[in-house]
Amino acid sequence: MSAWPNNGVPPTPDGAGEAPTAGPMQSGGGIIPFGSQDDEKGGRDSVPLPLVLLTCAVGGALASSTMSLAAPILVGYGLSAAHARGGMRLTALGTGISLASALALGLPIGVAQGVGSVIACLAGLIVALVCLRGRLTPGAGCLVVAALFAAHIGVDSAFALMNGTTLSQTMAELIEFYRDAFTEASPTSSAQVQTVSAVAGILWPTAYVVVSSGEFLAALAGAHLALRRVKPERSWEGIAGYDLPLWIVVALVVAIAGLAVALTVPTAPQLVLMVSANLAMALRIAFAVQGAAVVAWLLRGRDLGAFARFLVWAAALYLEVQFVVLTVVGVVDVWANFRHLQRGAAPDGTAAQDKKPGQTG
User: CA-to-CA distance for 307 and 299, rounded, in angstroms?
Assistant: First the structure.
């Protein structure tokens, strides 16, 4: 019989209709994007190794620049992708690269700058690891911000002591310098300048809270972007599921009690007022995010365009800045539970709010 069929079409090559078998090239030596097929099925190796290491290096380099807030984003992204690709071994390599890059460019500027760059890189590492283990709850996020705050203010306090002064004295001299400069530039507004200076003299530690919160959110954004790529099967509830644990409320009660004592007892130390006021300001950020979560929950499923949503968020931000509306909504939501979230103690004794990993993502 002729090898050609009667329809004039060449015969089908052998094996064309069969499933390909995994030979030596397909099982590891072939040209397969970002690794083996098994790795791709598991969501691993979706970021090329050169890009992972380059991201960590660039993140460390930016930590000592004026774009230092971008460092936790890149480090968080790079280390999350590194862990998904090569586990803790590649994560350690990426961490070393980012720290070496930060120190190489930060130390020539100054030792304090170099140490601050290291803290920014460590923020990306901590957030990446917590996210990868699925334990980033709102309470854990607050603890990470508190750790970053303690690191930043501790380092600056240590360097101030090495220079024969204290951080409080340094900040007081800085505030006095700007107060005299503004008073000289605008003598008619000296009363307002004096008031602002007095408030700044109490609330200057809040600046460290803002920096720490920014680093945490930046690292969270980087880790979130990486995990959406390397682990697309993971579910992310978003800000609408953000729910603070009850111990944050206890901290707020302690801060309010401290303020009451500091403002009503004449013999109360100034330190009580400073600690209570700054703790209250830090908790305001946390409760404002909870208020924003209520707004996001209200907008969920609404048939609103992008411009309408922008107007809603702009109005919410304005009301928060002017009248602390989001913070009040967040505090009330702890008791009112506007979003009907599952709360209470879990069988193991932990709060239900800390049983929802990724709800801050």
Answer: 13
Angle of helix 206-230 versus helix 270-299 axis, rounded to 10: 30
Query: Residue 31: which residues within 8 A CB-CB, separation 6 or more?
Result: none
Asked if the model's pLDDT at residue 356 lies above 70, the reply is: no
DSSP string, 181-249: HHHHH-GGGHHHHHHHHHHHHHHTTHHHHHHHHHHHHHHHHHHHHHHHHH-TTS----GGG----HHHH
DSSP character string of 83-149: HHHHHHHHHHHHHHHHHHHHHHHHTTT-HHHHHHHHHHHHHHHHHHHHHHTT---HHHHHHHHHHHH
* pTM for this model (two decimals): 0.81
For 117, the token pair is 């760059």
**Mind listing the pLDDT tens digit for each residue in 207-237?**
999 999 999 999 999 999 998 888 776 666 6
Rounded Cα gap, residues 237 and 224, in angstroms: 12
- Picking from 85, 16, 23, the residue whose alpha carbon sits closest to that of residue 53 is 85
* Alpha-carbon distances of 245 from 139, 156, 252, 257, 354, rounded to whole Å: 6, 31, 12, 20, 7
Nearest-CA neighbor of 152 among 111, 126, 115, 125?
Answer: 115
Q: Range with the lowest mean pLDDT among 30-34, 124-128, 258-262, 345-349?
A: 30-34
CA–CA dist 234, 54 (Å, integer): 25
State the Cα–Cα distance between residues 60 and 71, nearest whole angstrom: 6
Torsion of CA 228, 33, 44, 226, to 10 degrees: -30
Q: With the C-alpha atoms ordered 108, 109, 115, 118, is the resulting torsion angle positive or negative?
A: negative
- What would the mean pLDDT of 322-343 be, rounded to a whole number? 93
Measuring CA to CA, which residue among 100, 82, 84 is closest to residue 92?
A: 82
Distance CA 236, CA 232 (A): 10
Only one residue has tokens 């079409």, namely 9
**d(C-alpha 309, C-alpha 312), whole Å:** 5
At residue 345, the pLDDT reads 53
